[in-house]
Write a structure and sequence with these properties.
Layout: H1 14-25, H2 32-39, E1 46-47, H3 62-70, E2 73-82, H4 87-102, E3 107-111, E4 113-120, E5 124-128, E6 141-143, E7 155-163, H5 169-185, H6 187-190, E8 196-197, H7 201-209, H8 216-243, H9 248-268, H10 277-307
Antiparallel strand pairs: 1-8, 2-7, 3-4, 3-7, 4-5, 5-6
Helix pairs in contact: 2-8, 5-10, 7-10, 8-9, 9-10
Amino acid sequence: MLIDELVVPKYHATLMGVLSEVAGHFRSSFSRAMLYGGSGQAFMVNIHPTLNSNSIYAWNHAPFFRALAGLGIEMIDHGTFSRGTSLPTRRALEQLLADELDTMQPCALVSGEYQLISGYDSTGLVISQPWTSHGGRRPRHLSFGTWSELGPEVQARFFTFRKVVGKDLRGLVIDSLQYARSLYYESGKHTFAPCAAGAEAYPLWARALQGPADTGHGNWWNATVWAECRAMASGYFAELAQLFPATAELGMMLADEYALIASDLSALADPEMLSRVPEKVALLQSVALRERNCVAALSDLVALLQHKA
């Protein structure tokens, strides 16, 4: 059984690549930028003190799941499993996933990166990945019973999806902007120690760059993923400016500012910047200042949406 139109696009934020494909399968009319912005992912930044790239995946998803439901997609978390999980428990999960796929409901897992479960055959689950290359932590197939592709130490978290009735567009947008403000100002609600999100993330990132740890890969991947998110924030505000004329001036200002943030973060990821620590710190300071000003303006945008057509 294969939902053969499902192929994960090559987004750096692989969670959003999976969700983009799920949204398309559910015949959602939302654009890529609306999916990032409406779910709040466009405004996420989560940093570990050593720039460990796991921080990109390890944050509190509960508010994200609520925002995603506003877009008409329910993402159901079935928890973390491994080859060490008992065979009856793994078998029950396999049956649950197969039952969902039989009714054309896509499923997903995260192991190394987010991946879409697009079907199954007589031997196991069929996986669609964001890249063609794969290693032990990115199985393109997961054998029933043994889960041998995962390796002995690797865990996987599994999800199923449902199409639900979303919010009206204005309500969805207002909620997303309030979520963006919370992500920025309330780090403790959205991540887990020792990581920091929002306004607290950038000073932590700067300190990591100036520390003794080798931050080459961690800096590159964090900068690459969060730059993509901010580029989507830019597109989101440009789209809102078109959808809600009363917000046009402020929306386009925010679109321009988030485009500059995305550009600075992309520059931070440039391998040629690897040893130029003062320049990287200066770029982060520029990003932090721009983002602080942008988030401060979101309450004005909410007010426009609440009181004007």
